[in-house]
UniProtKB/TrEMBL annotation, chain A:
Species per Swiss-Prot/TrEMBL record: Adhaeribacter terrigena
Highest taxon, organism lineage: Bacteria
NCBIfam families per record: PA_CoA_Oxy4
Name of the protein in its database record: Phenylacetate-CoA oxygenase subunit PaaJ
Transmembrane feature ranges: none
Domain MIP18 family-like: 4-68
Domain PaaD zinc beta ribbon residue range list: 119-159
Entries under InterPro entries matching the protein: Fe-S_Maturation_MIP18, FSCA_dom_sf, MIP18-like, PaaD-like, Zn_ribbon_PaaD
PANTHER family, per database record: 1,2-PHENYLACETYL-COA EPOXIDASE, SUBUNIT D-RELATED (PTHR42831:SF3), FE-S PROTEIN MATURATION AUXILIARY FACTOR YITW (PTHR42831)
TrEMBL record, chain B:
Gene3D superfamilies: 1.20.1260.10
Pfam families: PaaA_PaaC
SUPFAM superfamilies: Ferritin-like
Source organism superkingdom: Bacteria
Protein name (record): Phenylacetate-CoA oxygenase subunit PaaC
PANTHER family: 1,2-PHENYLACETYL-COA EPOXIDASE, SUBUNIT C, PHENYLACETIC ACID DEGRADATION PROTEIN PAA
Amino acid sequence: MLTKEQILTWLEEVKDPEIPVLSLIDLGVITDVTVSENDEKVTVEMTPTFSGCPAMDYMKRNVEEVLAKNGVQNFEVRMSFDKPWDSNKISEKGKIALKNFGLAPPPEYNLILDLDILEHVNCPYCNSDNTDLKTPFGPTLCRSMHYCNNCRQMFEQFKPL
Amino acid sequence: MNTEALKDLLYKIADDQLILGHRNSEWTGFGPILEEDIAFSSMAQDKLGHSLAFYSLLHELGESDPDTIAFTRNANQFHNSQLVELPIGEYDFSLIRHFLFDNAEILRFDMLTRSSYTPITTVATKLKGEVKYHVLHANTMIKQLGSSTEEAIGRLQNSLNEALPYALGIFEPSKYEAELIADGIYEGEEKLKAAWLENIKKVLSQTQLELPDLTTITPKNGGRYGEHTEHLQPLLDEMAEVFKIDPTAEW
Ligand SMILES: [Zn+2]
């Protein structure tokens, strides 16, 4: 009998294509996995980070491939806003992985997005808060660009949302 | 619940996003500086994502699938405001349009998070955060450039004067206004416009730009009822060509 735990272990190998150190589970986009009692049908529920993120289709296909590779015959991967993603859903492990990758992790916040949480983002290279927001739009939809006045270099942040 | 009223609301929102998304994407590779090139490209991606989310809601209500809706209608079947279909012009104009449009959009999304129609609430709650970044970008750029050089201020002021009648067309009431309000689906264009005006005044007051006297301006209405400028159909033709679908004559 397939179990949810088993499937989650397999899915751990699926990474965000734009941030190859971050698994989809740590990113928080896998919102549910169910195995139906009678026919062992596996349903994986996913939700997009940013709605226009072109990598989401790719991630969905990767999930399907991993299920197929592990011999699951009857499965469905669904993408919806039913349990919408926000950046607080990135796991602690995921935040550490982001920082080691050189991307400032999004701060835990009260889901009311204002300018204050974008200024003075902690620099992933030197940990200084003496930083400025340069632009809320970076090389991918989920990143903003900042400048560290302490170590004098540009860095990117995984934006809070 | 009046389904026709609901569809009308969803169409105008989705069409605004689709058309402005395509206009914004025209800046890719042509931004005045790399950061703005990236910003307009990112916002284009977001807007197209948003239109897809709203077209999907329409599909759930029995309309065609999102691609068919997006790429096979003619101009007179589009409900977007005329503001979003205007050519990108110079950067000043695109920035002003982005400022005027997204400050309305964020308030519209905020209203929709309180809608009695749950599928809208879910989508609006999700997308509101993304629009917040658009507003943040617009307001920051307007504050910076709107109090910089005389030339920049002059150019922005001209664009503001030019765009404002079209921006007022965003709030053209639909024929279902009363039903939507009564059913608690949407709080209405009148209320949206008042809140929008307050917000844009707040930003403009921190610049040397002046908001023209609105009582002297006739809004460029008609977009919500399928009346468009000559700029929309060529854009739709181009979009349809890209997606390799022939536009249908009737729908
Ligand atoms: Zn630093």
